[in-house]
Amino acid sequence: MKVVPQWLLMVCAVLGLSGCDEPPAVTRSSAPAVSLPFGSLPEPVADLRQRLADPGIDGLTTHMIGDGNEELLLLELDPAKFEPVLIGMPREGISPTEALRRNQLTVVLGSGFVAELRGLEPVGLLQVEGQTLSPIQAYGYTRILGMNDEGIGVVHRSHYQRDLFHSALQAGPGIIEQGQLDISEADLQRPEYFRSFLAICSDRWVAGVSLAPTHLRSLGQTLVGFFEASQWQCDDVVNLAGDRQAVLLLVTGDDTVIYHGEPSAYKASLIGFRFLPAVGN
What we know:
Layout: H1 6-15, E1 38-41, H2 48-53, E2 60-65, E3 72-77, E4 82-88, H3 96-103, E5 107-110, E6 126-128, E7 131-134, E8 143-148, E9 151-156, E10 167-171, E11 174-177, E12 180-181, E13 196-201, E14 205-210, H4 216-230, E15 234-239, E16 247-251, E17 257-260, E18 269-275
Antiparallel strand pairs: 1-17, 2-3, 3-14, 4-18, 5-16, 5-18, 6-7, 6-10, 8-9, 8-10, 11-12, 11-15, 13-14, 13-15, 16-17
């Protein structure tokens, strides 16, 4: 059995993280970002929020929830229309805009955790199409977000098996687990960061980012309230890398790319969604 380092136990105790769910795996060399790019390509859209409200994509609906200080952008995706894709390019890296182009994606969400700020060395499991690019980490990030022929699933790292998923990413903590908020109040004593996350619901997937720095607990409370009001059954919401690593891109029906985060900054891993091939009659 792997022994958890004493420094990690001390950090988890101070932060009140149950099961040592979110260790400080990223070495931060600067203060948390207070703003991230929010715009469109190839040219600026006059009313970005209005354009987001009606992106013109079959099987995709956008939602802006929360208040101005903790506003979240959610992309609701129909699993009957989209397939998930995990993109992994450790050490070499790939930008979100390049990931869109190479893989013919409609949505890009990022990113996986890395060892240092703006680094390209993954932290924990990164498995793409059956190939393990980075081994599982036995402590720290507790959730394994995986993809197989059935769609997207989430398991605790202790329940992970090699044949569960063809592609998988170690992340965490679970903001929502088994439908319940799973972030303690101690999180409110930590700095606020921009966040990126993925919700796995009974009949939809939800890719999201925070449009302002926020705490994980506050984000989770907002999502729980929204899911309950919308009568969505969302058992898992997994936290991806935040701060300057957080990014979300959407290609609208007229081929405009709307982005929040840095669209050209290289990432070690990204999650994408693309249209399923049309089924013939």
